[in-house]
Amino acid sequence: MKAAVMYQKGELPQYIDFPEPIAQNDDEALVTVKAVAIKHLDKGRASGNHYSSDAPKASGRVIGGDGVCLLADGTRVYGMGISGMLAEKALIDKDRIVKIPDGVDDATAAALPNAVIGAAMGLKFKADIQPGDVVLINGATGFTGRVAVQIAKHYGAKKVIVTGRNQASLNDLLSLGADETISVLQDDENFKARLAAIHSTTPIDVIIDYLWGHTAEMILACVKGNGSFTNRVRYVSIGAMTGDLIQLSAANLRSVNLQLTGSGLGGWSKPQVGQLFSQILPEMFALAAAGKLKVDTITVKLENIAELWGLEVDGGKRLVVVI
């Protein structure tokens, strides 16, 4: 079979012939792969920069963690790979599949789940989002951030505030459900003044953060209390696009009813992951089929994987390899 294979961390994947995987037990299914999204997670694992990265294999390994595939009976499903997914054939875990409705094309079905995982899991299980909550999404102009805006509104957020660098993309978010935009390109004092003014009139309940770094420091400074009663603020770190470390004042933890947590691989319970496949992903696929959850994708061919691996896609789109 043809596959995208990595031999050393950090190198470019190669489009080569590779042995077809063989199921080792009844929990695994051999599938025909139709589409796979290229995500920051895949690149991070391949380069060795993600905390879940595997050790390199001299024999090479197929990359790609999830995608759209066909079961032996022709049923189209989203599946989590046991073997790498950027190949004509792959092994998936039978307990981690979701049937895809007819109204969702392969590219959308491949791109959506990772963003749902990066948005809904944090909103639902870490932030415990409630109808009427005010939600701030830090770094919302990326693909997952755009999905997070829509899911937050679907879960009943009264108001969604978004931050980002690209003003055109920030403006686009207003059509997806965002209520207010804040550019991170302005100077620190103006950024904090704008956010503090919003927080004083409509206290922020949930913060979903895809950036971390300096913007996280400024946001935490803006929600710090002054000794009076405060609302409960649930701060969920999901990404660290602008820095892995921050300075955190102890006063932040004492002056406000603050819950600081993260949402990612290893941060969820088994029942929560089970609910992802049994309830959350089916619900989001249904929303997409009904045109109520929108994403933008760019489709490419597997044979071009090496030249496309480092391609940066702007405007909140996702690169999807169609096989």
Walk me through the structure.
By secondary structure, this protein is an alpha/beta fold. The chain has 2 domains: 2-99 and 293-322, Medium-chain alcohol dehydrogenases, catalytic domain (Quinone Oxidoreductase, Chain A, domain 1); 119-262, Rossmann fold (3-Layer(aba) Sandwich), CATH 3.40.50.720. 32% of the residues lie in helices and 27% in strands. The strands form 3 sheets. Strands 3, 5, 6, 7, 14 and 15 form a 6-stranded mixed β-sheet that branches. It has a 6-stranded parallel β-sheet with strand order 10-9-8-11-12-13, sandwiched between helices. Strand 11, helix 6 (213-223) and strand 12 (232-237) form a beta-alpha-beta unit. Helix 2 packs across helix 3. The longest helix has 21 residues, at 106-126. It is elongated.
Total individual domains: 2
Q: Helix/strand/pairing class, anyone?
A: alpha/beta
Q: Quick one: CATH superfamily of the largest domain?
A: NAD(P)-binding Rossmann-like Domain
Tell me, what is the CATH class of the largest domain?
Alpha Beta
How would the blueprint of this fold be written?
Elements: E1 2-6, E2 14-17, E3 28-38, H1 40-47, E4 61-62, E5 66-70, E6 76-81, E7 89-99, H2 106-126, E8 134-138, H3 143-154, E9 159-164, H4 167-174, E10 180-183, H5 188-201, E11 206-209, H6 213-223, E12 232-237, H7 250-255, E13 257-262, H8 270-289, E14 296-301, H9 305-308, E15 317-322
Parallel strand pairs: 8-9, 8-11, 9-10, 11-12, 12-13, 14-15
Antiparallel strand pairs: 1-2, 1-4, 3-5, 3-7, 3-15, 5-6, 6-7
